Amino acid sequence: MANQSLPSRIHLIGNAHLDPVWLWQWQEGYAEIKATFRSALDRLNEYPEFVFTRSCAAYYRWIEENAPEMFEEIRARVAEGRWIIVGGWWIQPDCNLPSGESFARHGLYGQRYFQAKFGTTAKVGYNVDSFGHNAMLPQLLKKSGIDYYVFMRPDKQEKELERNLFWWESEDGSRVMTFRLSDSYSTSWGASLEDKIIKHADMGAVDGHAHMTFYGVGNHGGGPTIANLEAIRALQAKFGADRLAISSPNRYFEELEFARPALPVLKDELQMHAVGCYSTHSESKENNRRAEHRLLAAEKFSAAAGVLLGLSYPQEQLKQAWENVLFNQFHDIMGGCSIREAFQDARESYGEALHIAAKALNAATQRISWSIDTMKPDVKSLSKEKDWLSWEQGDLGTPYVVFNPLSWETEVPVRANRKLASVTDDEGNAVPVQTVRASRTNGRDNWDTLFMARVPAMGYRVYWCFRDKALTPESAPSPVIAEGNVLENDYVRVEIEPHTGYVSRMLDKRTNTEVLAGKGAVPVVIDEHHSDTWGHGLRSYRDLIGYFADAEVKVLEQGPLRGVLRVTSRYNGSTLRQDFTLHHHSADVQVRVQLDWREKHKMLKLSFPVAAEQPETHAEIPYGYLRREPNGREVPGQQWIDVCGIDPKTGTRRGLAILNSGKYAYDVLDNEARITVVRSPIFADHYGVRDDQVEYMDQGVQEFAYALVPYEGGWQDAGIVRKAYELNVPPVAVWETYHEGPLPQKYEGLKISSEQVICTAFKQAEDGGGWIARGYETAGRPAKAELRVPMLNRSWTADFGKCEIKTFYVPSDAELPVREVQLTEMAMVQDESKETGSGNP
């Protein structure tokens, strides 16, 4: 009989927090996972009342591979209902930095693994140690079959919540019941288990509903101990088993759903625990961005080559590559707070993923290019007599096939690694060209040719390259001016201050307005000696101690297609090289950066004061965007941010978007945006001993790109989302020769009627019986879109809500209709018979 009562019911959650990588490498994590799972199984044998909760499909895969007998024990305990699968994702990732499609893949591969191996999927999302949680997660969770969410960070000192249990809602209206741990996920820290229970019960009494209390040794594994379970038995005797239940998150949320307490609704991001994690270890973050995009491109053209030409789709290889990327998104890897050796492992893992994607992309594009009809009447057989580099015969030209992985037609600069006299499109129309310096220095063979290619959506186009035959385009573009310290075209004028290298003026000639309120692209050096690797306890990095200056400005290119100014500036032993590029057809300024960074405990930001009053700022988040306050706080972003407001002279609304190819942190204070380029803390330094043996992050050379996009009106109508993808997803080009083939010289693989909707993924379905197309609404406005896939002879119409993600299953059997499915490619929960569109053109 209990002799003391608790003021509210407590659900005790047996947990083993286990970082597979942190202050150790993955091999040690691998061993620790086996030992921890063995310990949990021992507790299940010893204590018939015990229930164990465990996430992360990657961990189960390791057990399956390396300890198959133990895996069978786990399967039996899952079937018994005492080993509870939660999370549904491949790992517990950082929840700000992966792309929207990466979160979709966590659900796809995690949930399908659990379904295949255990006959169940997770209903509770579970990221108890991740440092912040993006505002689109409710939709990403719901469309992965997950109805509930558990997290711990940010804690109450980092973000005030009305209550630790609430409905969390994303922009599209999706909701998940969400619980924030009131204390640690572990009993190896701080207060005793009894003290935690009493504290949580008191909180539950105030809130009017039960709470969860987690127990078990954590971080390096361990899980619930014999001492934990003996203590629980004693506490149950004291308080009563009805008030102190050995439970699981599943049971907790099911009880709360049944009780239906009145809960607050939060429509916001859950930020954040440690502001420095979005700028640590540039290499792994840049590799993540590249791998995500390359895998998507490889999938699209592998699917196209399969449909059009019967090429076998490399499903298992691509899945392996995705699993590498998803594992490296673990919050202590992606967040940049692990040991140096862990990042060497991540480099190898990303390298494997990138190489798998490269091989698949090459196989697909070359299979397609080889099947295009490029034969010329004068060609009898192949012969390489004219030139050692190409198969051109006479002045017939060499076919160069340019592929566009994106879901809209693009007009992009393409570089051919030959010096050419002229280039025509597939219809024989000459296009403007510009001779540019090559990366090689091979005798006189050190020139490439630049031309603008207009390529259909998720398709290709053949361009003909002539070594000697000079052809003049019917209409020549106005050349770009690149003189001294000025770049100018018909749309914009950019002036560089010679001695500093800063942008002293950016004039939008379309509206005759100044884009900047002061000097822009200013390299600001910030002191961060007071920061640990994570940036614990900080809200911003604004302790300015210097600037890069002592600049050299040099005209690198001037021609009909683009002008380039190279600006080289210095600070102490570090050198910053920025190639400012302006193309003839656009007001966008693209900047290719090479940084040789030699600073320690310092941060580099690029500053852009925007000529905007009443400023607002927005940023891309996974499969969406978010408006934030311009309060100077260091925050995460993805491929673009903007600052917009009222032009002080004209009173019109305008702004500046800043795109990037691999950076994830920034701050905006009033109208000044600062993009975080690099910071150099010590590896895995939590205010430890800083002796002469420590090693610093990001020393040496790194490269990335950014772009400045001035616009009038709102960012939604300025093509910002598409421009950001174009900066990150370059075209793919293949040199070809003369051959007959079934394919035309120009092909469109996809067509979407609404400019607001982007198709990010097109792949073979996991069941092999069809194809998957996934897209999302980008502007925060409802849209109706027709999606046409010519190679499948399919079209369908769908209504997209505000910021809504939709996944379509297109059966290989043309008699079967296209239908909407979850991110997991399983049937939609709300209506399993729902079908979208007729499935036929």
UniProtKB/TrEMBL annotation:
Keywords: Glycosidase, Hydrolase, Metal-binding
Origin superkingdom: Bacteria
CDD domains, per database record: GH38N_AMII_ER_cytosolic
Boundaries of every Glycoside hydrolase family 38 central domain copy: 273-350
Designated name of the protein: Alpha-mannosidase
Homology family: Belongs to the glycosyl hydrolase 38 family.
UniProt xrefs under Pfam families: Alpha-mann_mid, Glyco_hydro38C2, Glyco_hydro_38C, Glyco_hydro_38N
Cross-referenced SMART domains: Alpha-mann_mid (SM00872)
Cross-referenced SUPFAM superfamilies: Families 57/38 glycoside transferase middle domain, Galactose mutarotase-like, Glycoside hydrolase/deacetylase
Gene3D superfamilies, alphabetized: Glycoside hydrolase 38, N terminal domain, Glycoside hydrolase family 38, central domain, Golgi alpha-mannosidase II, Golgi alpha-mannosidase II, domain 4
Entries under PANTHER family matching the protein: ALPHA-MANNOSIDASE 2C1
InterPro entries, alphabetized: Gal_mutarotase_sf_dom, GH38_C, Glyco_hydro/deAcase_b/a-brl, Glyco_hydro_38_C, Glyco_hydro_38_cen, Glyco_hydro_38_cen_sf, Glyco_hydro_38_N, Glyco_hydro_38_N_sf
Residues making up the signal peptide according to the UniProt record: none
